[in-house]
Amino acid sequence: MPTLSIQLFGKFCVWRDGQVLDGFDARKVQELFCYLLLHGKHSLARETLSSILWPETTTAQSKKNLRQALWQLQTALGSQTEPVNGRILLVESEWVGLNTEANIWLDVAVFEQVYNLVQKIPGKELDTPLAEKLEHAVQLYQGPLLEGWYEDWCLSERERLQNMYLAMLDKLMSYCEPRHDYETSILYGLRIMCFDRCRERTHQRLMRLYYLLGDRAEALRQYERCAAALNEELGVKPSKSTFALYKQIQADQLDEPELAMALKETDPTLETVTPSMLEVLGNLTHLQETLADLQNQVEQNIQQIELALNATGSSPSPRKTLV
Questions:
Q1: Among 3, 43, 195, 207, whose CB has the most other CB atoms within 10 angstroms?
Q2: pLDDT digits (tens, 9 = 90+) for 58-90
Q3: Cβ neighbours for 89, distance < 8 A, ≥ 6 positions apart
Q4: What are all long-range contacts of 213-216, with beta carbons under 8 Å and residues at least 24 apart?
Q5: Do both 51 and 143 map to the same domain?
Q6: What is the largest CA-CA distance in the chain?
Q7: Boundaries of domain holding 302
Q8: How far apart, in whole angstroms, are the C-alpha atoms of residue 316 and residue 70?
Q9: pLDDT per residue as tens digits for the range 302-323
Q10: Cβ neighbour number for residue 118 with a 10 Å cutoff
Q11: What pTM did the predictor assign?
Q12: d(Cα 291, Cα 293) in Å, to the nearest integer?
């Protein structure tokens, strides 16, 4: 049994032998420990750590802050009195790292191990033991990584792990559907919606799953939810394929081959619209309009100069074609 258990999903917490461990009240001590847990498999330079955790202070002050935080962290972990091979942290004069042989349980580590295990296996091809591991892994996701923290290093990790979580839920949807466990598949889809209301492919799958359950009215309502989310978040309408699906369900004309095709696990074309892409599109459209205005202005200036030259009897040079 691990001597130390650490939760990073949702609220940060540390237990030892089932009891919450004291000594982690200082926020910077928490940040230091969490950063090492996420990035410390390879030793990190003290200067790197100090600049990340104290970016707004001088180099000398940030290194001093790191020394103090390390001492507090080692005290909380009891590392100063343990044999070197049993310590959680490996601290040297210039480097700090995590002892990968230490007897600890970390929710994020277990979560990532399962993700890597099933990543290349389609959900419908999972066997029961793997599906159970996957179900256990998604239960570990008690909320976004270190919920309430807004440091840059934390935000990037939070997004990465959330994307993994959504992919795992999607895989579980694909596992449940061919086994006719439509209710459970819908529950996984609704969990995806809690984090990404604009995930159009999931809206499509939910529409079809409700239809498979015989709840055509709820399938149609799911389309309305999809349309509202896309309009509110991205200012766009559902794709043609989503609208076509809506019309087919409305007319009660979906057959089994269409359902099987529609519930395939991978269909990246439906998830390509993002706020950042829309922003880029808007910028490019504006640039295109600006260039058109400039071209018109240049043409007008050329015409005026040619008229002036003709009036004086001068012969203008032949125009050069720009390519």
A1: 207
A2: 999 999 999 999 999 999 988 654 545 568 999
A3: 36, 70, 73, 74, 77, 79, 96, 97, 98, 99
A4: 213/182, 213/183, 213/186, 216/249, 216/252
A5: no
A6: 99
A7: 278-315
A8: 77
A9: 777 877 777 776 666 655 544 4
A10: 21
A11: 0.77
A12: 5
